[in-house]
Amino acid sequence: MIRTRKTPPIFAVGVISLLVISCYLLVFRDGELGQQHVAKATAVSDIRGLVAMSREIAAMKKLPLITLANEGFLAVTHSWLCNTLRMHVHEQVIVIATDEKAYMDLKEGWPHVRIYRYNTTQEMTGSYTFGANGYRILLLLRVRILLELLKHDVSFLLFETDCVWLRNPLPVLDAYGGYDVVGAQLGHTLDYRDARGEDAPMATKNFSVNFMLVRATEGGVALWEKMASRLQRHIGSEWEQNIVDFLCKQRFGGVNCELFPYSKIADGIWYMMVEGARNRLAARPYVINNNYIKGVENKIKRAKENRHWFLKDERNCDLEMVDGLTRFQ
Question: Which of 32, 86, 168, 255 is geometrically suited to a Cys-Cys bond with 223, CB 3.0 to 4.6 A?
């Protein structure tokens, strides 16, 4: 039996401290995410398989619906797939899985949905909190993957699965054929309700990427490429939707942008509204994005409280909920 010498406690603490400091310096520089680390973590590898999947969908005269999932977002993704089970949209969906657990679980549970295994340069399995470093890096990776798709002449609808589709929203897209980028708009974040519970105005007119149509046109590619570049340089301080909002309003590269009506594509402010404001602004939207709340568990809790959760357990759909809520088209 080989015996090992015990490391003196003070020395062990010192080594651990140096490791922590080294990791910190690798990730941060001058208070921001280090560019060398970010570039390595978000380097886009071979996506020929993803391009092929997208072109299969386009060959059916349909638009690829693209989302990204990891192990930390599995339950939310399963719930959305249950939510849309009868909407006849799954043949257009591509879920980009960034870890093996998410890939295998979704592939087994949803054999008719296209699940693409994307091999990241580092493990990205966590249910990252909004604003955390891992969250920012995952978003930048998504942006760069989608940029490569645009460069391969693939248009798409980007969406996130922490949402509910009350109705199939795809027919809404038909009215926006002349635009390069069409996005959901952010709800009013200050006065969604006042102390008296009266209706409050909502007029942000700001773009959100939670539900965004992006076409592989000259304007669409130029905007996305500029946004990706700027986001990488300022990853610790900017968000992709703020950059998109700025570039759209500046008509950067001649891009032609438009917003979906809030009454059709709502966000997490919807859950906070008093009934009068909700009835006036978005009584029954097609989509409600479950944002403006931090943490996956909190998202799930709010979805359940509003009967917007469609799982009985980890793997089985609650068909009674699906049939009771969703208007099929």
Answer: 255
- Range 8-11 contact pairs with CB under 8 angstroms and sequence separation of 24 or more: none
Residue 292: CA count within 13 A, CB half-sphere: 17
For residues 63 and 170, the answer to whether their CB atoms sit within 8 Å is yes
CA distances from 247 to 29, 63, 143, 280 (A): 27, 24, 15, 30
- 220 band by pLDDT with thresholds 50, 70 and 90: very high
Where would I find the H helices in the chain? 9-27, 35-41, 48-59, 74-83, 100-109, 133-151, 218-233, 240-249, 275-282, 296-305, 319-325
Question: Number of H helices and number of E strands within the chain?
Answer: 11, 12
Sign (positive or negative) of CA dihedral 187, 192, 198, 203: negative
Residue located via tokens 């090992």: 4
How far is CA 294 from each of CA 132, 154, 165, 204, 328, rounded to the nearest angstrom?
Answer: 11, 32, 20, 21, 31
Phi-psi category of 152—alpha, beta or left, where left has phi over 0 and alpha has psi -120 to 50?
alpha
Distances (CA, A) of 157 to 29, 154, 248, 311: 35, 10, 17, 24
**Rounded Cα–Cα distance for residues 64 and 324 (Å):** 27
Q: CB–CB of 94/116 below 8 Å?
A: yes
Identify the DSSP state of 157: E
Which of helix, strand or coil describes residue 308?
coil
Q: Compute the average pLDDT of residues 293-311.
A: 95
Residue 59 and residue 57: Cα distance in Å, rounded? 5
Beta-bridge mates of residue 33: 28
As given in the structure block, the two tokens for residue 103 are 């890939």
Residue whose pair of structure tokens reads 């977002």 in the numeric block: 73
Predicted confidence (pLDDT) per residue in 105-154, tens digit: 999 999 999 999 988 765 554 555 555 555 677 788 899 999 999 999 99
Structure tokens at 104: 């295998």
Spatial contact of 218 and 151, defined as CB atoms under 8 Å apart: no
